[in-house]
């Protein structure tokens, strides 16, 4: 039962099951990532995002149900990017100790570089924070 619950929480956190993202949607996500990092979850409105993208607000809503979904997809991309970097860093090393050092170094470097989006996550709505905790708990229990 616990595994099923973790899978449900993971799916809830990761709203995008898309394998390919349109160029317009990807551009919105990239701009949103920067704006969330600068302004935080509460500080960014869809109207502001649309203005920065040079799009109508309706176009943003065409791609994303709401700001929370957009935020969660940005976080998903951040997590996937972190995962890929860690895997690549470990793959470049031969010994287990060197792999561990590379993983820890890469993780710390990326977290330091992206601390603004992480801090934004911590100050997001309580619902988003709850979903994030459940997702991270699911990852921890599956390792």
How would you describe this structure in keywords?
8 helices; mainly alpha; 81% helix; Tetracycline Repressor, domain 2; 143 residues; 0% strand
Structure description:
- The protein is an all-alpha fold.
- It has a single domain, classed as Tetracycline Repressor, domain 2.
- It contains eight helices and no strands.
- The N terminus is likely disordered.
Please render the helix and strand layout as text.
Blueprint: H1 2-13, H2 23-43, H3 46-53, H4 57-63, H5 67-91, H6 96-113, H7 115-122, H8 126-142
CATH topology: Tetracycline Repressor, domain 2
Rg (C-alpha, Å): 17 Å
- Largest sheet features: none
Provide the residue-averaged pLDDT. Answer: 80
Helix content, binned percent? over 70%
Give, in order, the helices and strands: HHHHHHHH
Count helical runs: 8
Choose one word for the global shape. elongated
Q: Which structural category do the helix and sheet elements fall into?
A: mainly alpha
So, CATH architecture? Orthogonal Bundle
CATH superfamily: Tetracycline Repressor, domain 2
Regions with little confidence, pLDDT below 50 for 5+ residues: 1-17
